[in-house]
Amino acid sequence: MADSGLPSRPKPEETPAAAPAEGGEQSKSASKNAAKKAAKEKAKAEKAAQRAAQEKAQAASQDANDTAKDLYGPLPESMDVLPTTHFSQLSDAHYEKEITVVARVDNARVQSAKLAFLMLRQQGQKVQAVIAAAEPISRQMVKYTGGLSVNSVIQVTGIVKKPEIPIASATLSHLELHIRKVYMISEASEKLPMQVKDAERPPPATTEDASQADVEGAPLVSLKVRLDNRPIDLQTETNQAITWISSGVTELFAEYMLKSGSRWIFTPKLVGAATEGGSNVFEVKYFKKNAYLAQSPQLYKQMCIAGDMGSVFEIAPVFRAEDSNTHRHLTEFAGLDFEKTFDHHYHEVLEFAENLLVFILSQLKERYKEQIAIVQKSYPKAGEFKLPKDGKALRLNYMDGVALLKEAGVDVSEQERFENDFSTAMEKQLGQIIREKYDTDFFVLDKFPMAVRPFYTKSCPQDSRFSNSYDFFMRGEEIMSGAQRIHDIKELEASMLAKGVNPNQEGFEDYLAAFRQGCPPHAGGGLGLNRIVMFFLGLPDIRLASLFPRDPIRLRP
Ligand code: ATP
């Protein structure tokens, strides 16, 4: 019915009830008003339709006259796949050549009806692009390009030119792309919760400072906002560099280990018992039972040694249910672990580990120079990481550290009685003292008191108050704990009892059986990837060195 253009007849249930007889005059004037209103609305709708048709016709004619209509807009599906060039490959050799790049819009600006600028961003690096209306580039194309929404992913084809003056705001300041084609690949249509350029500056010292602005009035984005919007935050030049350095640490760790003949292992993260202390372990449902998330691969690394694997290493998550809201604690972190047999003395393994760290830290400086320089622009306070000049790690005994602190006037009575390990403040102060005295940010303390180490640690044969255990420090904070492990079953059971750990507790049977069945002497260590990155770069918070940090209050994104 409606298709005939006639108003459809109301259905019986829609028929208005007959007006009451006494309201006759009133109802006549009401229906007159309604008719007037309807006529007005009709005229209005007709005008709007006319206008729309005019605009459409205008757009169509503009389109028909747009000399650039195939050179911009949504990426045509039928288009040939063009080989793209990465910003990192660009050099003077590209001058006057046509290239195609896929990048984000860091900024878009219309200068005039005939001129617009884009700042393109690719993994933190920036290149300026310019578009000028000149056949076949039309004014419409210039307008489209200058109006592209920030952070959209686009494909740009253009000629690489040498700018008259270097472009200070671009990373690749000695070249400029003169746009020939620009297509949208993925539009950033939503309003961004923060701007990448604002996240380029370090966050304020405390999360409460969310609304702070810097001296020039530019907004300072709090750490919370950054972490809540991590995919955008990761786009900053600084985070691109930090994540490369983090990747570099694992690359170098694996490289050193594999070159030394060590095997890469993967141990379970779901375990049946909380064998390393029950309080800081996450419990999870495991069908009809409970399971736990592994707090370290310690017992498994040792069982691999008992399995005659000689030297093993692992890169895997470590879970700690510690309610520690500090700058250096996460509830899940990336652990770099190793375990290794030795022939005569645990110092063979200690030296191996010292050389590992010297290798990682010195190679980072060599292979990731550019990234380190980028991070230092944002976090200059800590200064460059100092390595020992002779390429050999500085090794002191724990008690030497206690003596250095005592000399500096620190109360170390608890440490002298072997009751407590160093506090974080003491570690930091010791780091300062050692930096001043030995000119290094990396050092090792050996021979910790037995009282502050776990049950599987071998005590020192010459003095049972101490143990064959060591910690590694960067800028005065712990990045590795390690030790010679007890491989003799009787000694192991006695050590467990002395530490109040019941050897008959569920979960120890397989571990202890490995030693009952014979196991060679061995030592090893556990490092925290996020801490290495944090202290190497002098970052103020471990969350800045973790992709998607987990802490007692953060479980997203
Ligand atoms: P801390 O005393 O600093 O809490 P820890 O003695 O508990 O550390 P270990 O259990 O010996 O540390 O773990 C070995 C390494 O793992 C540490 O040196 C550190 O690099 C890293 N690590 C330990 N706990 C955490 C954590 N909660 N968050 C991030 N990294 C950690």
TrEMBL record:
<dbReference type="InterPro" id="IPR012340">
    <property type="entry name" value="NA-bd_OB-fold"/>
</dbReference>
<dbReference type="InterPro" id="IPR004523">
    <property type="entry name" value="Asp-tRNA_synthase_2"/>
</dbReference>
<dbReference type="GO" id="GO:0017101">
    <property type="term" value="C:aminoacyl-tRNA synthetase multienzyme complex"/>
</dbReference>
<feature type="domain" description="Aminoacyl-transfer RNA synthetases class-II family profile">
    <location>
        <begin position="312"/>
        <end position="557"/>
    </location>
</feature>
<dbReference type="InterPro" id="IPR002312">
    <property type="entry name" value="Asp/Asn-tRNA-synth_IIb"/>
</dbReference>
<keyword id="KW-0648">Protein biosynthesis</keyword>
<feature type="compositionally biased region" description="Basic and acidic residues">
    <location>
        <begin position="38"/>
        <end position="49"/>
    </location>
</feature>
<keyword id="KW-0963">Cytoplasm</keyword>
<dbReference type="InterPro" id="IPR004364">
    <property type="entry name" value="Aa-tRNA-synt_II"/>
</dbReference>
<keyword id="KW-0436">Ligase</keyword>
<dbReference type="InterPro" id="IPR045864">
    <property type="entry name" value="aa-tRNA-synth_II/BPL/LPL"/>
</dbReference>
<dbReference type="GO" id="GO:0003723">
    <property type="term" value="F:RNA binding"/>
</dbReference>
<feature type="compositionally biased region" description="Low complexity">
    <location>
        <begin position="50"/>
        <end position="61"/>
    </location>
</feature>
<dbReference type="Pfam" id="PF00152">
    <property type="entry name" value="tRNA-synt_2"/>
</dbReference>
<keyword id="KW-0547">Nucleotide-binding</keyword>
<dbReference type="GO" id="GO:0004815">
    <property type="term" value="F:aspartate-tRNA ligase activity"/>
</dbReference>
<keyword id="KW-0030">Aminoacyl-tRNA synthetase</keyword>
<dbReference type="InterPro" id="IPR006195">
    <property type="entry name" value="aa-tRNA-synth_II"/>
</dbReference>
<dbReference type="GO" id="GO:0006422">
    <property type="term" value="P:aspartyl-tRNA aminoacylation"/>
</dbReference>
<keyword id="KW-0067">ATP-binding</keyword>
<feature type="compositionally biased region" description="Low complexity">
    <location>
        <begin position="15"/>
        <end position="33"/>
    </location>
</feature>
<comment type="similarity">
    <text>Belongs to the class-II aminoacyl-tRNA synthetase family. Type 2 subfamily.</text>
</comment>
<protein>
    <recommendedName>
        <fullName>Aspartate--tRNA ligase, cytoplasmic</fullName>
        <ecNumber>6.1.1.12</ecNumber>
    </recommendedName>
</protein>
<dbReference type="GO" id="GO:0005524">
    <property type="term" value="F:ATP binding"/>
</dbReference>
<dbReference type="GO" id="GO:0005829">
    <property type="term" value="C:cytosol"/>
</dbReference>
<feature type="region of interest" description="Disordered">
    <location>
        <begin position="1"/>
        <end position="77"/>
    </location>
</feature>
